[in-house]
Amino acid sequence: MKVIVDRTKCDNHGQCTFAAPTVFRLDERGILQYEENVDESLRDEVEEASDVCPAQAIRISD
Amino acid sequence: MTTELDVPYLDIADPGFAMHSQAVRDARARSWYAKTNYGYAILRHEYVSTLLKDPRLRQGSAKWPEHNGVHSGLFYDWWTKCLLVLEGEDHHRIRRLLNPAFSLKHLEPYLPRFEALADELIDDFLPNGQVEFVNEFAQPYATRVLCILLGIPESEWPTIARLASTIGLALGVTLQQDLAEVEAAIAELYVYAEDLIRDRQVNPGPDLVSRLVEANRNGDSLSDDELRNALCLLIFGGMDTTRNQLGLGVMSFLQHPEQWELLAAHPELAPAAVEEVMRTNPTTTWVTRETVVDFDYEELHIDAGTTVHFFTQVSGTDPQAYPNPEIDITAERVGHYGFGGGMHHCLGHFVARADMAIALRALSSKMTNLRINGVDEWMPDSGNTGPVLLPLAFDRR
């Protein structure tokens, strides 16, 4: 599955990094870095990341 | 570039200090930061946006009890284990377990009950043409929303409101003299929370407490103590803030009646109305951080352990980020920091956004021509602010 982050909405709060730490991380400047192509086994974690994002910037494209 | 001589100084410990003042606007025009009694204040949106989430800063309230001479006891123990001040893995683990229960999809089933509650409270005072907004609407609404979410009988709201307000005294500079009262309230709230947790462990329902009891990630779950601490934080952090923000919001619209009429005519703008009042008139006027390491940013050097306040209202009305900074519920805006930001971003923001949108929509649909009706009384315009008394008169729509 493909992870899409709307960079115009993302504000680097980093809540997604708690939900799916192998997909999302903040770099040393606090800017979001993430994997775009993610194994299906991580779907629950990425959906949780999307649900808890304060800016609602994350979606999954199948 | 700000040179050392240009750096403004803001006496934010002065009870007369006001965020909504020419002195603060002048400071923001001169410099992106100011010196304060405690450390530094960040004034401009661009810098708040960047530094609030910088990993070289940590939440700045961890040492609040110690700074006020409190080194042990019930309040100290709760505060130092509270999500608000935890950092690193301890924080991330608990935040991760709490976050899903506060997501939008779990909130949606409750929205009709929030709507019914808003209507019930408004209909009680509507025939009078006047209302003391804090005690007749904002406080019962904010507290009963919490009761609904937690699955507590709404009739118990006065107890919850009293405990939340008393624990709120712990944030004041009179903490030492209020300590006995604060600790008695925490003890009472602990018993309340423990009973609630025990009940939901046996009788799970659709409520937030049940969700937290059942929260589990990879075999990890919240211990009973962690659950209790989280519920106390929720009640402490969820009531006063919403009550105060509703009062501030209504005051903003009282001062901008054309915006109130616009909201009444376009109820779908209620979510934007919430964002606009939180941007221009937030209850949390500053968010506190502390530098973890010696810190260089542009021309500024800050030693490790220095307090940095992010001024939310000041950055939220920064003309560089908001060319026409006055409240406008139809405008496209960049985000504000009324809910803080970064890993400590407000946990309950979806709840607050939804319940305040419902309240403003209901109020604007039934009331017009809002005006002050007597003597209003306010907390200082700094720290956490809002009305103590807000007597209003209005015409029925």
Total individual domains of chain B: 1
Broad structural category of chain B: alpha+beta
The name of the CATH architecture of chain B is Orthogonal Bundle
Overall geometry of chain B comes to globular
Order of helices and strands of chain A: EHEEHE
Number of domains of chain A: 1
What does this structure look like?
The complex is a heterodimer of chains A (62) and B (397). By secondary structure, chain A is of the alpha+beta class. Chain A has one domain: 2-Layer Sandwich (Alpha-Beta Plaits), CATH 3.30.70.20. Chain A contains two helices and four strands, in the order E-H-E-E-H-E. In chain A, the strands form two sheets. In chain A, strands 1-4 form a two-stranded antiparallel sheet. A two-stranded antiparallel sheet of chain A has the order 2-3. Chain A is globular and about 30 Å long. With 397 residues, chain B is an alpha+beta fold. Chain B has one domain: Orthogonal Bundle (Cytochrome p450). Chain B has 16 helices and 15 strands. In chain B, the strands form five sheets. Chain B has a six-stranded mixed β-sheet with strand order 1-2-3-11-8-4. In chain B, helix 7 runs parallel beside helix 16, helix 8 packs across helix 9 and helix 9 packs across helix 12. The longest helix of chain B is centred in the middle third of the chain and has 32 residues. The chains are: A alpha+beta (62), B alpha+beta (397). Chains A and B meet through helix 1 and helix 2 of A and helix 5 of B.
